[in-house]
Each structure stands twice: as structure tokens, then as C-alpha cells.
Design the sequence.
């Protein structure tokens, strides 16, 4: 029986090596003046920006620029919107990692409003956005967040009263995602590993989510197949191989579509609580906890019984990652295989432990207190959540 | 290696039994005056329309009405647009089979223009539409065409100089598809069989299409799984079972998304040529030819070699339909199994032969001449295409 579900729209997608050459034409079709949002400079260094910029100039599109260094803050958004007031910007192009695309989303959402972005932030202003946005073209240069397909932008206020919160609206999904795996070729191994494990976490959590539906099931499993084949390669000998990078870029894109429609689980609950308390990249916290969390969830499902559909899903992923055909009778073996492979990847990719970012044993109680299970297929108890963290402290 | 692909947006989807109760609220959110497009009266007879209409009235939404009996003609569209000029209609709601939703699409596309729809019809006017449309909510009452998710509307001019042509634009994809399997409960067995086989054909053809991509692969296979489990049931003892109807409605929806993004094959090439020459329902012509066409394509692939990826896809569908786990070593057996199951379904569902609609042996040459392979995984020769038809003449 298919349960009731809703599926929000996905962005229009242009996927493929060299697809960045279509960006300027897409901007010209939208018309007007562009706001280009980029990150810290690696795009320029890679040489890719020069080519895109040349095409934009050739197409006669006037541009304003905003740089988002690190995770965007509400201040950056408010100040940029104020500075751009009266500039006549009619569309947004964001090229970069998840933070840059989130900044693009927030700017596209706030150029049409006359208040601070904090008014729309969940748990802060809490006002509902009216959905009026500027058209937004998102171009990812990492394969991880899937932000090019999601409806929220995460904004971070750094400092002693620091927080991470989203603004969210179906209309914040970019109008067009241009996914060019060649733009990820220069992404360093450490970032590739952390973002790749983030994509893997998002795919696995949305696949087993209580809000999953047959569409997200199909797309998540498709993404997991490509990530399983390519994650280690992308961080090693396949880093310069466009086909390997394409597989990861596709997995990341699917992870965004799936999380936007099916939600996430306890690893992202932990990423929110730990990420709010410590300065730790999102991909690292997800990656470091994915193995222990999956082990704990599968253990809890086995112990509490009755959730055989979810165990079957985990087993399917285990079969995919192990390069085997799925067979129902091997369900238990394949679940164990999945746990084993995740631990092996995290070890092989040398994902840091939480202690490296200052998380101590005595912080665990507060982390657990702040952690939500989200749409996890089983509600882990505080003791179970604590075990997930403690195993990855040192 | 993932080949380059583009994926156009899908409609926002509300899926589930009783989801029709959300239509009025969605219309109210869009605001303004509605044009309601319905078909021949079975919706009213089923009692479902009364409930929806009551909610629309309660929400205070003023409505104009257009009835589309049978496949919509260019004349119906032009006359309706002329009659509605100045009515202040701001949104379109279409509730019915594929023809009704296609009429809704054409009206949503033409209420913003001041010329005849023929100007935009492929192979006739051939002008490019500017994409300006009225918001369109599509509500299918059959499970077959997937029109609620596609970007084209088929218009038919009946008569000695008859033709069937599409208008097409990415913006013609309805903004919202409300898929309520309860609306299909009263669909008679014959229509369920023909439309169900149309959905099956669309899924299978887009899955093996030369334009397929990993996203359409995942969604097509997902739809095929549900159709395989439920097609015979929906036409028989499961006709009154909402879960069975939901499976078919989901399969149909996926078929629309997949065909809009991956195209179709030679069965739809034949449906176009035969459908232009004879008065035969689209679902019947697809359904009657699906078995012989699949047999011919698999035979051609085997004969010409080199296309093992496509044979593997057919084998995966064979495994799905046979309720078996897919195993690579059984590829040949599973391809044969698929052919056998398709023939058995067509027989069991008593799908008429072409002769019943006046197609004679001597018409075959002209049919073959007019038939395109479209995105078929192998280009069938005229002799092969003729064999597909001849086997289903009588």
C-alpha cells in the first residue's frame, strides 16, 4: 500500500560535463541584471570561473557580486540586500559549495522583502515567507549538500550565542540546477570525503525515513548505487576522473531531492546539536557518526522487532555497497555488511573524531538533550544516542 | 558513466486517498476565478464531483465550466477561449482522463494568447509558445496517460483530413497534480485495462529509451514494480481496492514524468500512425501491440548484439513482473519471461485486435511508412515493424 505523500517540485536540471557552458545562455533567457554569489576563491583558482565569466560578459549580462566565505550569516544576507537595494538585480546565480548556494537562496528570497532575514528564520522570527523570490540558478562545486535541490538555506550566527537555523519555503528550491562534474575535479580529498559522506548520510536517512515515499525510495536508492561505487575512488585515484565525479555529483543531487521530500534522521539531529555547539564542518560530523548511528539504529530495529520493511531497506543498501544482488534471505547478513562497509569507509577516508573539534565526554549529556530523532525509522533513546557519540569521541 | 541529461521540473504532487478534499483549498490559495474542465459525466455520476464542487463553492471560488467530450479538438480550444475572453479566469482545474487534462493544458496555454491553438501545433503552425500559462491543477480519474505530469497536450481534428498533434512547452506541465486513487475506483474494467497497459507501455518505453537517464530509470522501474503487482487485480477482483488503484495511479504518474523526460519508443510511434488513420483508443493500440513489439525489440537486440545494457533492463522488468529477484546470469530467461508475461496479460485482459477497429492487412504498408521508431533502443526495420502489427491484426 502506498501511503499518502506530497512531492514538492524539483529544480530543472542540466547535468553533465561541460554543462557550465550553458549558464550564460540560461541567464540571458531570464534577462536583466544578475547577482553572482561565489565563495572563497577556489573557483577562480581552478580557472573555471574565468570561462563562465567570459561567457556572461559576452552575453551582455551585467553583474553584481557577493562573496560568501564559510557558512552565510544573517548579517551577510541583510547587509548584502541593503547594499544591493536599487541595483535592479533580477536574478541570482550561485556557484560554489552548499554554503554559497544557501547564500544564493537567502539572497533570492530577501531581495523581494523589506525586513531582516532573521524574521523568517525557524525558531527565531518564525514568520512565514510569502514565496516571492528572484529566479535562482545554482551551480554546485562540491558533491555533498544537495543544496541545489533543497528548499531551505542554513544561516549561521557565530559567537558565544551562536546558532544555525534555516529559512524554508517550497519556492526557495532553485529554478535551475546546473550540475557540471568538471567543476568538482579540483575539490580536495578531505572535502570530497566529508561532503561525499554527507550526501551518503542524506541518501540513507531519507531512504529509511518515516516520511519516505516510493518516489524518494527510487531516487535515494539510485543515488546510493552511484555513491557506493564511487566514494572511495573520488577521494583517491579517481579524483581526476570525470565519470567518478559525475557519480558523486549525481548522488549529491539525489540526496537534496530526497531530503527535501522525505526528511532526515538522527545523524542530522546530531549534526544540528553538535554543529550549534562546536565549530565542526557539517560533512565531518555526519561522516564521523554515520557508521555508529547506522549500527545503533539497525540494532534497535532488531531488538524492538516489527520494522522488517526498514531492515529490508538497509539490507538493499548493503547489497548495493557490496556489489551483490539483493536476496531477501540474506537480509541479516546484508545489514551487517552495510555496517561493516560504512565503518571501513570512515576509517579508510580518515574522517576525524569529535574530540579533534573539542567535543569532550562531559559535553555528551547536553548534546543528547538537544538532539532530535527527526524522521529516524526508530526513536533512539538518550542512552542509544549517547552511545553513537561516545564511540566517535576519540 | 552517467551521460549528460536534462530533467525538466515535475509538478508538485499531492498523492493519496481523499486528496481531492485539498483541491478547493489549493484553488483558494491561487485566488481568482477558475475554469473547471471535466469530461462526459462519469465524474458526476460517481458522486465525486458533488463533493469537490461543494468545497469549491464553500471556498467562495467562482467558476466557469468547459466540457471536453472525447479527445479535445483545436476547434473546442479556440471556441472555448473566445467564449471565455473577458471572463477574468485566472486558473484552470481539470478533472478527468488524459483527454480532459490535455484540454485543461491547452486552455491554460491559450487563455494567455490571442491566436488559434493551431499556430502552436507541431507539424501545423509550428510556432514556439512563449510559455505564458494560467496556473493549472490536474486531477486524473483514470490511471493511464500520466498527462498530469507531461508537458504536451494532444489535440485531435476528426474527419477525412484528420490528424493528432501536440502543443508542447515545459511550462505546460501542470503546477499541481492531485492524484486521488478513490477517483479511479469507478473506472470500468475495459478502460482500466487499456489505460493501465498505456501506462505500462510508457514506463517500459521510457525505461529502455535512448534518452533514459538515471533519474528516469529509477522512477520508471519504481512505477513498473507497482503496475506489475496490480494491473490484473485492478481490472478484476481488486477493482474496488483503493490500494490496488493507488498502485496503478502511481504507475501512471511515474509514466508521465518518465516520458516527459526520456521520450518513448516504437509502440508510441505506431500509436501515432495508427491513431491518425483509425478511430481507436490510444490505450488499446498501445496495449494490443506491447507484447509483439517487445518481443520484436528483444529479438532485434539479441540479433544485432552489443546492447547488453538494454537487455539487462528488460530482464530487470521481467524479474519484477515475475516477482523474482533479478540475477544477471538469468538475463536471457528473464527477457523471455517478460515477453511471456506481457502476452499473457494482453490475453487475460482481452485487449481487442486491430481488425476490430477496421485495420486491414493492406493498410500495413502505409502504417509502417508513417511510423517512427522515436527513442526506441533499437531501430526496427520496416519488415520488423510490419511483423509487430500483423501479429495483432486478427
Sequence:
Amino acid at each position: 500500500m502506498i501511503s499518502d505523500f506530497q512531492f514538492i517540485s524539483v529544480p530543472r536540471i542540466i547535468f553533465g560535463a561541460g554543462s557550465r557552458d550553458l549558464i550564460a545562455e540560461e541567464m540571458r533567457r531570464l534577462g536583466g541584471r544578475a547577482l553572482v554569489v561565489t565563495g572563497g576563491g577556489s573557483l577562480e583558482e581552478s580557472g573555471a570561473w574565468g570561462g563562465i565569466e567570459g561567457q556572461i560578459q559576452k552575453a551582455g549580462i551585467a553583474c553584481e557580486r557577493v562573496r560568501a566565505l564559510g557558512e552565510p550569516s544573517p548579517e551577510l544576507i541583510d547587509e548584502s540586500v541593503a547594499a544591493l537595494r536599487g541595483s535592479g538585480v533580477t536574478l541570482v546565480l550561485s556557484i560554489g559549495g552548499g554554503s554559497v548556494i544557501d547564500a544564493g537562496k537567502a539572497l533570492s528570497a530577501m531581495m523581494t522583502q523589506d525586513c531582516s532575514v532573521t524574521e523568517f528564520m525557524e525558531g527565531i522570527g518564525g514568520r512565514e515567507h510569502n514565496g516571492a523570490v528572484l529566479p535562482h540558478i545554482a551551480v554546485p562545486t562540491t558533491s555533498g549538500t544537495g543544496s541545489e535541490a533543497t528548499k531551505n538555506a542554513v544561516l549561521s550566527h557565530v559567537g558565544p550565542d551562536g546558532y544555525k537555523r534555516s529559512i524554508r519555503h517550497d519556492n526557495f528550491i532553485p529554478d535551475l540546477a546546473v550540475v557540471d562534474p568538471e567543476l568538482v575535479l579540483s575539490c580536495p580529498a578531505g572535502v570530497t570525503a566529508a561532503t561525499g559522506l554527507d550526501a551518503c548520510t542524506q541518501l540513507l536517512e531519507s531512504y529509511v525515513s518515516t516520511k519516505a515515499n516510493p518516489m524518494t525510495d527510487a531516487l535515494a536508492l539510485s543515488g546510493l548505487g552511484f555513491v557506493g561505487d564511487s566514494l572511495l575512488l573520488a577521494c583517491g585515484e579517481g579524483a581526476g576522473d570525470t565519470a567518478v565525479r559525475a557519480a558523486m555529483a549525481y548522488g549529491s543531487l539525489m540526496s537534496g531531492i530526497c531530503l527535501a521530500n522525505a526528511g532526515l534522521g538522527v545523524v542530522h539531529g546530531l549534526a544540528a546539536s553538535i554543529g550549534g555547539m562546536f565549530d565542526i564542518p557539517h560533512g565531518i560530523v555526519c561522516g564521523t557518526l554515520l557508521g555508529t548511528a547506522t549500527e545503533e539504529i539497525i540494532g534497535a530495529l532488531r531488538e524492538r522487532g516489527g520494522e522488517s520493511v526498514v531492515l529490508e531497506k538497509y539490507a538493499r543498501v548493503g547489497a548495493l555497497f557490496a556489489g551483490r544482488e539483493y536476496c531477501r534471505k540474506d537480509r541479516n547478513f546484508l545489514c551487517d555488511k552495510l555496517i561493516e562497509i560504512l565503518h571501513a569507509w570512515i576509517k579508510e577516508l580518515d574522517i576525524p573524531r569529535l574530540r579533534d573539534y573539542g567535543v569532550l565526554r562531559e559535553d555528551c549529556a547536553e548534546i543528547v538533550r538537544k538532539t532530535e530523532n527527526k524522521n529516524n525509522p526508530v526513536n533512539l533513546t538518550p542512552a542509544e544516542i549517547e552511545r553513537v557519540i561516545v564511540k566517535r569521541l576519540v
Remarks:
- Chain A is about 50% helix and 10% strand.
- The first strand of chain A starts at residue 5 and ends at 7.
- Residues 271 and 285 of chain A are 6 Å apart (CA to CA).
- Chain A touches chain B at residues 1-19, 170, 213-215, 217-219, 221-222, 226, 243, 246-247, 250, 254, 325-328 (CB under 8 Å).
